[in-house]
Amino acid sequence: MEKHSWVIKVGDESTTTLQRRSDPFHPIQSSSLFSYPSTYGQHKYAISTSRSTCSSPLNFSDYWDVLKEIQNLRRNPECSTRNVRYMQMQGGGGDSFGGNLSSHLRFSFFDHQNDSREVPCGFFKKFPISDSDEIAMEKCESVVVVSAIFNEHDKIRQPRGLGSETLENVCFFMFIDDVTLKGLQYHGLISTKNSSGYNKIGVWRIVKVRKEDLYHNPAMNGVIPKYLVHRLFPNSQFSVWIDAKLQLMVDPLLLIHSLVISQNADMAISKHPHFLHTMEEAMATARWNKWWDVNALKMQMETYCENGLQPWSPTKMPYSSDVPDSALILRKHGLRSNLFSCLIFNELEDFNPRDQLAFAFVRDHMNPKLKLNMFQVEVLEQVTVEYRHNLKPSDASIAKKLSMTRKIVRAKPDLLHQNGSSSSKCQQYLATMWGLTNNAAKAKNEQLFDKGGSRNKSKKK
Question: So where does this one cross the membrane (predicted)?
C-alpha cells in the first residue's frame, strides 16, 4: 500500500497548515464548510507550536485505500466485537448519572474475566437530549468525531483537510448546553426559528444537552461524550474525541488508520509534553489550581497508592508514559477500549474530571490489557491547531456562582501524620519516583501539595 507523509508548515497563528509530499486527494476547502460572521472570531488566539521541525513525521496511506479499508471493516461483522454488558437504569433512574459507586465496588470490575458480568458505565439517569438526536446518533456507523462545549468555554471550528468522500463516511457531533446555545444564537450561527428539528454548523451536528439533569460542573458533563462515546454511538466502530480548543487539520479517516488500525491498537493518545508520572500531574493540578479541592486530590492519590498505583518505569512498557494529553483520543470500539472508557468514567465521577489522574491507575489494573498507542506530542501538534479558551464567559451570573463555590480546599495535615508519624500511603511511590528516602519523599509531598492552597494566585500556568 502506497505511503505518504505530511509535514507541518509553520507560519503565523492563522496560517499554520499541513502539506503532503504527494498529489492531493482533492480535499474539501474549509471555507466551503461554513461561513462565520466576522464577530465570532473562530480563529483568534491560536497557540503556535514551539517546534519549527518535526522529528516524528506521521505517515498516512493513500486516502482512497484507507477509505476502502474502513468501509470493508464496517461490512465485516467479525470486526464488531463490542461485548461489554452494561448495568441498566432501574425504575426512574438514580440520583447520579454514574451511580456514585464506592471505591471497593468500582475496583471489583477492573478484572473482567466474565463477559456476562454487567459493568457500570453511566446512564443510571437518562442522558437529556432530544429523541431525534438520539436516533441520529444510533444511525452513525463506522467513524464518529465528537466534541463538546459547555458554558461557552470554546468556539466551534471546522476541520480542515477533509477528503472528498469523508463527510459521506464520518459523522461529526458537537454537544452543547443552553449557555453555549445562547452564544451561538447571539452571533447568528444558529437560527431561533429552525423548522428542521436540529441544527448544523458546518460539518457539526449540534446536540443540546439539558445540563440541569446532569452534573453541576460543566467539565464533568463534557466527560460523558468524551469517555462514553461508545454508548452514545453504539453502532460506530471508531471514534475521535477532540477537545473544542483544538481544530482538526487532518482527515479523521487517515488519523484512525495511521494511529489505530495500522498499529493494531485499541486506543491512540498523545503523551503529555512535560510529565511522565501520575503524581507529577497531581502536584501540578494542585499547584496551578486546575482543581479547587486539593484535599480531595490528595485523597484520590492516596486511594490509588493504597491500591497499587506505581510510578512509571521501563517495566510498564509498552506503555511509554503514565500521563497522556487527552485532548485528542482515537478509539476502536471493542471490549478493551469500551471497558477502559467505562472504568475511567467511574473514577472521574467519584473524584473529579481531571482524567489524567486516573488514566494510569485504570490502564495498569484493568484486565484484559489495553492495546495503547501513545504517540509523541509533536504528532498532536502536527494534526491539530490549539486555541485559547474563550477569555470572557457569556453568562456573568454563572461565572460568579462558580467562583463562589470554588474556594481552594487545602490538604488536611492528618492525611500525612497520624500520632506524630507519617501515614501517607503515597510515601513509597514518591520515594521510588524521586529516588529518595521515605522521610524525604514525605516532606516533599507535604510541601508541594500544601502549595496548592497557598500559592501566589496571580501566577498562571
Answer: none
DSSP letter (8 states) at residue 39: T
> What does residue 337 show for φ and ψ, rounded to 5 degrees?
-70, -35
What is the enclosing helix (H) or strand (E) of 208? strand 204-208
Q: What is the pTM of this model?
A: 0.85
Cα(98)–Cα(285) distance, integer angstroms:
24
Q: Which of 184, 214, 193 lies closest to 390, judged by CA? A: 184
Arithmetic mean of pLDDT, 337-348: 97
180-189 tens-digit pLDDT: 999 999 888 9
Cα dist from 45 to 38, 90, 383, 388, 391, whole Å = 15, 46, 18, 6, 10
Q: Which residues contact 67 (CB under 8 A, 6 or more apart)?
A: 163, 165, 166, 169, 253
Label residue 456 by pLDDT band (50, 70, 90). very low
* Set of cell numbers at residue 407: 474556594
Pairing of strands 267-271, 372-375: parallel
Domain residue spans of the chain: 3-276+315-405, 278-311+410-461
Dihedral (CA of 134, 139, 143, 145) sign: negative
CB 380 within 8 A of CB 328: yes
Encode pLDDT of 131-188 as tens digits: 999 999 999 999 999 999 999 888 999 999 999 999 999 999 999 999 999 999 988 8
Instruction: Give the per-residue pLDDT at 140.
Output: 96
Distant-in-sequence, close-in-space partners of 151: CB < 8 Å, separation ≥ 6: 177, 179, 180, 218, 393, 395, 398
Extended strands (E) in 272-411: 324-332, 372-375, 384-387
Pairwise CA distance, residues 363 & 340, whole Å: 7
Strand bridging mode 170-176 / 142-149? parallel
Structural contact between residues 226 and 329, judged by C-beta atoms closer than 8 angstroms: yes
Rounded Cα distance, 228 and 416, in Å: 35
